[in-house]
Structures are given as structure tokens and as C-alpha cells.
Design a protein that fits this description.
Blueprint (H helix, E strand, L loop, with lengths): L3 E2 L1 E4 L3 H12 L4 E4 L18 H7 L6 H10 L3 E3 L3 E8 L2 E8 L2 E7 L2 E3 L3 E3 L12 E3 H11 L5 E7 L1 H12 L3 E7 L3 H7 L3 H5 L2 H17 L2 E2 L2 E7 L6 E6 L2 E6 L3 E5 L1 E3 L2 H5 L4 E4 L4 E4 L12 E3 L9 H17 L7 H20 L1 H6 L14 E3 L4 E2 H9 L5 H8 L12 H11 L21 H5 L2 E2 L1
Parallel strand pairs: 1-7, 2-3, 2-8, 3-4, 7-24, 8-21, 10-17, 11-12, 11-17, 12-13
Antiparallel strand pairs: 5-6, 6-7, 9-18, 14-15, 15-16, 19-20, 22-23
Helix pairs in contact: 1-3, 1-10, 5-8, 10-11, 13-15
């Protein structure tokens, strides 16, 4: 029979590591499952093994993860890397979590869960995004961090801090950036202006953001207020066409990296029936959480970017606070010092969420990005176009889940991760409904691909 853990953490990024450190040192029996080969998450990927050249290219913020990683590896918790969680369900003891490890399915039991599996890049469904030679900016950064792989030449397109950071890192590594196509609407700058005071509460990050933006405008061919991106080519990418102020441009390239911000990964929380809510500010679905990441399901918490996008510092604090809240469940009389630290962390987390308001408003996706049209593929797995989705929506389907049954959109290997949000946008636009009234695409196990042989040979961890 499987041993029962007090606290099972999914994800070993900043939130998951901080939670595991706090909970295990407080005496809880903790297990951390992470799909990567080494802890750190995307932000601190490969930080313990990066070469001096990699660290120099990636910048000083990358190295901030080393003390956290060192503390995590020394913590008295169980840690299982290369564990792909494919199912989570409640049981009499709490929850059963099934994960693929070394090609076999292993089940673990825990009384409480923390979901800290981070975020994913917002799918940017522009014409031609399915062609060979198109990747996301996050994928480009993964190759840089994990394997020191760099392209010779690239076009970067989209919006958001990561796009600017990657442009800076690529330039430092000697990559030729043929063009940077910034899709941020000019109206966003005016919309974000009242939130400048929030940004000023974090002066270091604000100065860094302004500097990155100004440097790219000076050092690389930079196009602002870009619309109508169309990636062209037959067997592979050959060029990118786009519009600026009504004028069409074309840039030759064999590689395009797209980025339109990041959104929370909610599939695990949805599987457990945790309530979801639409954020107009962040333009994505989020798991509804109370203080310390408690969801609508008792015993399930969410922390870090898996809840609401906020970055590494905020994720680390949220992970620690979530673990402290779990520890408090068994503490009859918490000390005054524990109460003070808890309140201080809660205050700092609220302040950082408020400060994030500037970034959220400045880099909201342009309306055209959320409105794919015509033959543009929305569901790449099933090859379903925007026109097909819009026609079904206009015929009166009830929402994205009925649309899924009619069209197979969202039924492919990615299980709707790459199309679910855009399916919702198209339904909302076709039926003149706000996104908050269009339910998110349902998530069901398996959360990742698993074959019948693995399913038939589940063992206890």
C-alpha cells in the first residue's frame, strides 16, 4: 500500500520549491513531483549547471535561483523529477496523484495538495503559426538555458516582457535579430498610465523594463503597433508579412518566435473541480483562490503562476505562504513570530499583485490577436480553422465544450491547451457574449498522454 504524504507538491519551480522547504522543515512529510529533469522551473531552468557564458547571457536575475535551489535540495522532503502527472482524484485519505515515471504509472497518496505547475505561453493563432520554423519565445529560451542552443537569425513577434528579455539575451549571444514586431497597441500605454504608481513601488523592475524596451528600439529593427501578422512559406517559413499604420511590410526569415504573454495552467485544478474565474485584466481563466492559495476544494491549494501570473519573486512568496497555511492546520498555538511572518508575507504578496497591474494592462493582447479569422488554424492538432469555428458558434452551439463535440477542436494531443482560449474568444465574438459567460474548455484525465500498457500496470509509490 502506498504511503500517505502530508503534502504533495506538483511542480518544482519557485513556488513549489519554497513550499516544500517550508513544509518539510516544519515536520510535514512532503513529496514534490516535477516533470523536468532538474528543479528550478522555467525561470531557473538548468541554473545549477549553466556555464559562465550562459549565466552572463541570461543576466543576473537568472542566478537568483541558485540559493533557493540549494535550500530545496537540502530540505528533508522526497523529490521525484521526470514525473509527468496524468491524473489527480480525491479518495478517502485525501487525494491520489498518478504520474508517469520511467515509462510506468505510479500512484501517490496525500492528504493535501499544492498545485504549482506554473504557466504556459498564450497561444498566438496568427496566419501560418503552424508552419515549420515557427516556435514560441519560451521554447527559444528553453533551448538557450538547457542546451546553449542559439539560432543564427530570427524574427521575434508579439508582446510582453519575455519577448524583450529574449531579444536582449539573443543580442548578447550574437544572434542576428532581423526584426522585432511589437504588437502592443498604442492605446495600452494610455490605459496603463494610471498604474505607473504601482510600477514605481518596484523601481528596479520598472527601470529594467523601460531599459529593455528602449535598448531594443535602438539596437534592432523595431516595428511598433504591428497588426495582421502573416507567416508565409510552403515547406517552411520564408518570410513574415505584417501591417503598420496601414502599410504592409515583408521581412525574409526562416525562423519566427512568437510570444503574447503567459497564462496560468489550470487543467489540474479543473480536473479536481476547483472553481475558475475569468480575468478581464489578464485575459485568461484563473483558478479562484483565497488567501494562501486555498481553492474551492478543501485540501487543494494553488500557488505561483499556476494561480495568477506574477513572476518568480511573487511565486516564491506564495509557495511559502501556502505551506505555512498547511502547517498551521496542525498547530494548536502558533507562536507570535509565526503569526508575524505569515501576516508580513500576506501583505507583501498583495503588494506585488497590485504592482503587477502595470504590466498586465500594458501588455494586454491586441484585439486582433484574439480574433483569428478565415483559414487561420485555431486547433492545429485537428486542423480546424477560425472560419469553421465561427460558423459553428453562429449556428448556436452552447459553448466551447459543445463546440468540441461538433468539430473535434480541443481533442488532439495538446487537449485544448493550444486552442481552448481562442475557441472561447471566437464563441464569445460570434454570439456577442462576454468571455466570462463562455465556460472554459473542460479538462479531463489523462492530463498527459498515457498508453494502455502503462494504464494497466499502475503501481503504488
Amino acid at each position: 500500500m502506498a504511503q500517505i504524504y502530508d503534502y504533495l507538491v506538483v511542480g518544482a519551480g519557485p513556488a513549489g520549491m519554497a513550499a516544500a522547504i517550508e513544509a518539510s522543515h516544519a515536520g510535514l512529510k512532503v513529496l514534490v513531483l516535477d516533470q523536468a529533469a532538474a528543479a528550478g522551473g522555467q525561470i531557473y531552468r538548468n541554473v545549477s549547471h549553466a556555464s559562465a557564458t550562459q549565466r552572463q547571457v541570461l543576466g543576473p536575475d537568472y542566478g537568483l535561483g541558485k540559493p533557493l535551489l540549494k535550500a530545496f535540495m537540502a530540505a528533508p522532503c522526497d523529490y521525484q523529477p521526470l514525473a509527468q502527472v496524468w491524473n489527480i482524484e480525491p479518495n478517502a485519505q485525501g487525494f491520489t496523484v498518478a504520474a508517469l515515471i520511467d515509462g510506468r504509472s505510479v500512484s501517490f497518496v496525500a492528504s493535501d495538495l499544492l498545485i504549482a505547475n506554473g504557466a504556459m505561453e498564450r497561444p498566438m493563432a496568427v496566419a501560418g503559426w503552424e508552419k515549420p520554423g515557427v516556435m514560441t519565445a519560451g521554447a527559444g529560451q528553453i533551448l538557450l538555458k538547457a542546451s546553449a542552443l542559439l539560432p543564427k537569425q530570427v524574427v521575434l513577434a508579439g508582446s510582453g516582457p519575455l519577448l524583450l528579455l529574449l531579444a536582449h539575451q539573443y543580442r548578447a549571444a550574437g544572434v542576428t535579430i532581423t526584426a522585432l514586431l511589437d504588437t502592443t497597441p498604442r492605446s495600452n500605454y494610455w490605459r496603463a498610465m494610471p498604474w505607473l504608481i504601482a510600477g514605481l513601488s518596484m523601481p528596479k523592475q520598472l527601470v529594467k523594463g523601460v531599459w529593455l524596451s528602449l535598448v531594443q528600439r535602438i539596437r534592432v529593427p523595431y516595428f511598433s503597433n504591428v497588426t495582421g501578422i502573416n507567416i508565409v512559406g510552403d515547406a517552411q517559413v520564408e518570410a513574415v508579412r505584417f501591417m503598420v499604420a496601414g502599410k504592409e511590410y515583408e521581412v525574409s526569415t526562416q525562423l519566427v518566435l512568437l510570444h503574447q504573454g503567459i497564462i496560468a495552467q489550470t487543467q489540474m485544478a479543473q480536473t479536481l473541480a476547483c472553481k475558475q474565474e475569468w480575468s478581464d485584466t489578464k485575459q485568461c481563466w484563473q483558478t479562484q483562490v483565497a488567501e494562501a492559495g486555498q481553492t474551492s476544494v478543501p485540501g487543494v491549494q494553488v500557488a505561483g503562476d499556476a494561480g495568477a501570473i506574477g513572476g518568480a519573486q511573487l511565486a516564491q512568496l506564495e509557495g511559502r505562504l501556502a505551506a505555512m497555511a498547511r502547517v498551521k492546520q496542525g498547530a494548536i498555538h502558533p507562536s507570535w513570530a509565526q503569526k508575524w511572518v505569515y501576516r508580513a508575507l500576506s501583505w507583501r504578496i498583495r503588494q506585488l499583485h497590485w504592482a503587477r497591474g502595470l504590466v498586465d494592462r500594458l501588455y494586454q493582447p491586441a484585439p486582433w490577436v484574439s480574433s483569428p479569422t478565415g483559414a487561420t488554424l485555431v486547433c492545429r492538432c485537428e486542423q480546424i480553422s477560425a472560419a469553421e469555428i465561427s460558423d459553428i458558434a453562429k449556428a448556436g452551439c452552447a459553448g466551447v465544450n459543445q463546440l468540441k463535440a461538433f468539430s473535434r477542436a480541443g481533442m488532439g494531443p495538446c487537449q485544448g491547451r493550444q486552442c481552448g482560449l481562442n475557441l472561447g474568444y471566437l464563441v464569445a465574438q460570434a454570439q456577442a457574449r462576454p468571455m466570462a459567460q463562455v465556460e472554459p474548455l473542460s479538462a479531463r484525465p489523462p492530463l498527459s498522454p498515457i498508453n494502455l500498457g502503462q494504464l494497466a500496470q499502475v503501481t503504488d509509490g
